[in-house]
Amino acid sequence: MLEGTRRTVHAALEAWRRAASARRQRRQGRHVTRAALAAGLARLGVMPGDALFIHSSLKSLGYVEGGAAAVIGALQDAVGPQGTLLLPTYYLPGGTLRAACATPGYMFDARRHGTHMGRLPETFLACGDIHRSIHPTHSVSAWGRHAAWLTEGHHRAPSIFGAGSPWQRFLGCQNAKVLGLGISMGPVTFYHALEDAMGDAFPVPVWEGPTALLACLDHDGRRWDVPVRPYAPAIAQRRIDQPGRGDLRDYFEREFDAAGLRVNGQVGDAASWCIPAQAFFDHLRQLASEHVTIYATAAELAARPVLYGVLRHGR
After folding, report:
1. 3 state SS of 260
2. Which of 102, 125, 161, 241 has fewest C-beta within 10 Å?
3. Nearest of 105, 106, 144, 94 to residue 124 by alpha carbon
4. How many alpha carbons lie under 13 Å from residue 286 in its C-beta half-sphere?
5. Would you say 248 and 240 are in contact if contact means Cβ atoms under 8 Å apart?
6. Which parts of 44-145 fold into alpha helices (H)?
């Protein structure tokens, strides 16, 4: 009962916070329309038929007329009926993969668990024609041409981001692109696809302990035990999305710009970027071979300056 009261209070406070934020944006910011967002996406190189893996910050877009639903509509307009949208709709009790593994009695239920990923993924999850993968920590949701194929079977994959996962399948989509709306190159889970693809050959020992099995209930109420491998805390603390790793985020931005892979532009009020998914993955693998990963130390970055990469590739 106490836990239920806490959830109710938390939900009420979150709703109040969001309403207050929306009022401030409406008063202070310029109004952004669905059509203007779609035009900004087109300038980033998003085209009809594209498959987009989207990481976003809704508030960075400005005051969008129609809110999160209008942003989703603009993304759908940009890729068209033959396109695909893929968004993280993760549910992480405790806030981290390790904490989820340590939560007593935790069982993900696709029929009642939402997402901790913010307003845009929440709204996307509530839309019609959405397919959601079954996974205890890293469920993703998709709309469009490849939605069913991308999300099917995630609970049967041997790792979160590897073979048979939405990330691995996304790499097989034609015109697949990773899109960052109003975010840096820090909070991008696409990075982890390389870790699972390389396994123990990945140059940083990112995993801690044995693989755990976490329970899930699918859309029909059937139970699945899904393999999840937690990350080592000491390694995770130096990852690119951590507050103190501005040096690493800056390095990756300069690196992908210098390699000619990242298209930068403005979508609404948000500085945004787009990178072809296969080229993104291949370049991450090349960097890993040169001891630069999303966990790289300052010394490792200094040993492989961005200029070296530019000269090496003839750019």
Report:
1. coil
2. 102
3. 144
4. 17
5. yes
6. 67-79, 97-101, 119-125
| CA atoms of 124 and 85, how far apart (whole Å) | 10
20: tokens are 């207050």
Report CA dihedral (78, 83, 85, 86) to the nearest 10 degrees. -150
Instruction: Report pLDDT digits (tens) over 222-275.
Output: 999 999 999 999 999 999 999 999 999 999 999 999 999 999 999 999 999 999
Q: Is 105 left (phi over 0), alpha (psi -120 to 50) or beta?
A: left
DSSP state letter for 44:
T
Query: Tens of pLDDT along 15-69?
Result: 455 444 545 555 555 799 999 999 999 999 999 999 999 999 999 999 999 999 9
- The count of residues in the chain is 315
Burial of residue 164 (CB within 10 Å: 0-12, 13-18, 19+) is middle
Q: What is the mean pLDDT of the chain?
A: 90
d(CA 77, CA 81): 8
